[in-house]
Amino acid sequence: GNGSLGEFVNVLYLNRPDGMKFVEAAKKIGWAESTYAKKRKQVFQTLTDAIQQDARERLQRASTWGTLGRATRSQFVGRDQTLRLALNAIAERKTVGIQGVGGIGKTSLGHVVAQYYGQQAPQRRPVFWHTFRAGLNDTLQSLMFGLGMFLHELGEPSIWLHFCHAHRRQFAPERPDYVEMSAMLALEMLQMALARLSENEIEPLFVLDEVDILQANHPMHAILLALIDGLCGEPQMAHHSLRMVLIGQQVLSRHAVSLPLKGLVPTDLAEWLRQLDIQASEGEIGQLWQLTQGHPLMLSLFINNLDRHQALLPQLVALSESPSLAMMWERIRRHLSEDALAAMQLLAVCHAPVPISNQYFPETVCQTLLLKDLVTISLDGRALLLNPTLRQMLYRRIAEADRSTMHLKAALFYEDMGEYTAAAYQFIEAGRPEMAAHGLIAHKKIEMANGQANTMLALLQRIPQTALGHETDQQALALLRSELLLYSGEPQQALQSIGTSRYAPSSLANGYAQRLQADTLAMLGRVDEALDQYRKGFDSLFELAGTQMMQISLRRGANYWHRLHDLTRAEVETRRARCQLEILEGNIRAYAGNNAPAITHYRTAIAYAEELGDEALQAAAHQELAHISATNLDTQNAIGHYEACDMLFANTGQSFCQWVTKGNMAYAYLCGQQYPAALPLAEEAYAYMKTQNHHGYGVFFYAFSAATLAETHYYLNNIEQAERVANEALGLEDEFYSPMAQYVLAYILRDRQQFDLALDYCQQAIATLKDIQHADAWRVLARAYDALGEVQRSAGYAFESKRAFTHALNVYQQLGSKKECARIQHKINQFYALPMLGGGG
Asked: H or E segment at 205?
């Protein structure tokens, strides 16, 4: 209906005209600004749910392949007794093992078992299916990630939350409560989860396919086998409704009921042909059975590629000349188009489900391959897969010289489809390990969030450092491998991996390596070493920001001296480099909250810049001094420096910087509570920034000027103007300064005694700002905590108010703002003068 959340999402995010602001889009569907402010969070939740659902479908595809696959008639012929045995064993909560040679119908039988199990009560009898694929999902974390999502869908989120916590723990080794997943922990978590599900009469079936690829001498496989054996061999699991089917050519794990599959007998073959309306005499049926031994895959390929317009006997004679699968394929390929053959070759190098792309798999090609029963397609029509036995045969028939080309083609295909871990596997197989490493670095956050951390690590462990000839590639491999080892709970190995490569002192890689090393040392409990390493990493990364300019100045000086023998110009460029270094040193000290030494560096920089007559460098140093003064509520000094900036920017023709300076001056007056002086500057800056988009920073400065103007109006008691401009700033959704507008609205709502909505605004602002590592965000965060404390105090929540003020104090201490610290400390002290502290709900 009109004004619904769905309509708003459609207008705002899908069909919003260029230049239309968020609040204007809300008005377009009949919402007032206040309605938008209230429903904004709900809109984001609507979007989040939709995105999560889309991601969930993508994640589930690989894990539930068996329950999605297209059925063939061979599943329903000749397996009735085996099917009954499997279903009876499952009903008695016994583990079933389905065994047999490739192409004999193991997966097909598992598919039918799953269908029969869940068809009577699909809500109470869900099916989880995981097909192990070497190098792609054959780790405990991959299996448990899929299981976690599956159980989460059933209302049991414990395992899923464990992985969510693991993802958040990245680069946060100070959180000691995270425990890396092990076979024992996985078993315990499954037991508890299934016990809780059984209380709600939910009895899932777990199907694990291709378990025979797991090797006991492989470290990661050994953990998986320990888990599977634990599930099969623990009698107490019977009370937790565990029902499991293991499928493989040889199932080595313990199981109660073994179901070895053999080829179809002649009577079953006759029934199959009858169902397909293929006329065959008893002799022809016997001959077909003799040639295939009732092997379902060979029978399926022969029957689905049969020419119905010819007699059966001559085709059986041709088959007798080539009874093997390879020779049968040679007969089939003669009737396939070039596009179909190219598609089959691509599928042969891919042992993970392949997302359908019209570029590689046009609809006509897909239909041809499906009709001939050469491929399986998911019911949602998104992915294709070859029978494993057929794939192995076709892969062996690709010439060695052509395999690298086909793997490279597959890698680019997976990359285009957003399957980055599968792409990395293909790059390694193609002999391009450097492409695998760089591809995973570029998309590591996505893949780690999708539960692929251990799979990525296993892939990278296959790459020897010596296989990468370029030093940058070796660094990339070492750093990513170290990060994944740290994420997987192996800090000692991570530390060793960092040391396998050398990093240039002034490079970004060196700063990143030092930070990673610090994280690792912290996880190992070597706190002092970690702190030292953090400082080194911080300094090197900060220095990198100004290194290029200094190097340019020094290079110019060297050129003037060595080539032109111009001593004066060489000295000028050297002084310019020293000036830049002083500004950089000041930035480092100010960022760490050491304002006194920072001020000394900036003043030294100004002296050098004045000697050089470089007004741009003078402005840069004055600007930093103004920021420090404004943060310390030294308004007069701050304004003096800003006015110097304004003059210097005017002299150098930097008009946009002049307007930014006006906005900063207004904010300095605002922080110093000189509101009448702040108002005209804030209005001028707001009017200018509203019409600008200077190099893409327009929204940032627009939000800053609007939020500053809104807060100034509020303190001057111009409530209507404050609310209007604050809503405008809020609609810009800038992560630094839209939160400033939120706490201004919180003050307005507090005055109207709408405490719940006021608290919500404060908490939204804090949630947005608290993870941003930037001094500008910290200044707004401190004021947001201050606002939260004021709202809570007005609402009568004394304990909560004191806690909020304490958070504000901590942030101001980090900024080194002594006057702000004193102001907040005074508020905290007032609580101890109260006769009795109030309680908060």
From this structure: strand 205-209
